[in-house]
């Protein structure tokens, strides 16, 4: 009996990519879920192969970063973590494929790397478009300033206002 191929949707992976320290990363718990293993198993595999994971591939979050993440997701937990979560950069995720050898890990890794690549391409396209608009703005009269300002506003990422605390 053949196994059904694993499908990991790109949209799901995209929601798991976070921006921390100016880097696109994925958290250990999210990667573990995608790979179908417990977080502690993933971290054990990494620790057994720690030379493969320099600080630009993987790093533990600081207490302050953990607090910020928790406040963003507004989740409460019973109990607590024994260690701060680890963040994996695109290179760290690629390296995980060398320490996790299941068929599922291979398929998940392929989709994650594709998603990181798509994200990088989108960011490059966005930056290229911004430069072209700025060049056009210099070239044309001030009569188009309103149009260029509106386009720039559309290109700006939305500003996140601090969330108001709910409760008493």
What's the short story on this structure?
It is built from seven helices and four strands, in the order H-E-E-H-H-E-H-E-H-H-H.
Give a quick set of tags describing it.
168 residues; 56% helix; 7 helices; Mlu1-box Binding Protein, DNA-binding Domain; single chain; alpha+beta; four-stranded antiparallel beta sheet
Q: What is the CA-atom radius of gyration, in angstroms? A: 20 Å
Question: Helical residue percent?
Answer: 55-70%
Low-confidence stretches: none
Through-space gap between termini:
57 Å
User: How would you classify the helix and strand content by structural class?
Assistant: alpha+beta
- In the CATH scheme, the class of the domain at 10-117 would be Alpha Beta
- The coarse overall form would be globular
Second CATH tier, the architecture of the domain at 10-117: Roll
Mean pLDDT across every amino acid position: 78
The proportion of strand residues reads: 5-15%
């Amino acid at each position: 009996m053949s196994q059904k191929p694993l499908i990991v949707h790109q949209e799901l992976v995209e929601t798991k990519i976070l921006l921390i320290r100016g880097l696109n990363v994925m958290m250990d718990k999210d990667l573990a879920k995608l790979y179908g293993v417990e977080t502690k198993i993933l971290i054990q595999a990494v620790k057994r192969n720690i030379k493969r994971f320099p600080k630009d591939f993987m790093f533990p979050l600081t207490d302050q970063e953990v607090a910020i993440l928790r406040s963003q997701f507004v989740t409460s937990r019973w109990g607590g973590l024994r260690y701060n979560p680890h963040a994996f950069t695109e290179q760290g995720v690629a390296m995980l494929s060398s320490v996790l050898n299941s068929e599922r890990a291979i398929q998940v890794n392929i989709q994650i790397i594709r998603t990181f690549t798509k994200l990088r391409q989108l960011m490059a396209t966005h930056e290229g478009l911004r430069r072209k608009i700025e060049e056009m703005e210099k070239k044309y009269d001030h009569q188009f300033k309103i149009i260029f300002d509106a386009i720039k506003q559309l290109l700006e990422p939305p500003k996140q206002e601090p969330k108001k605390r709910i409760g008493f």
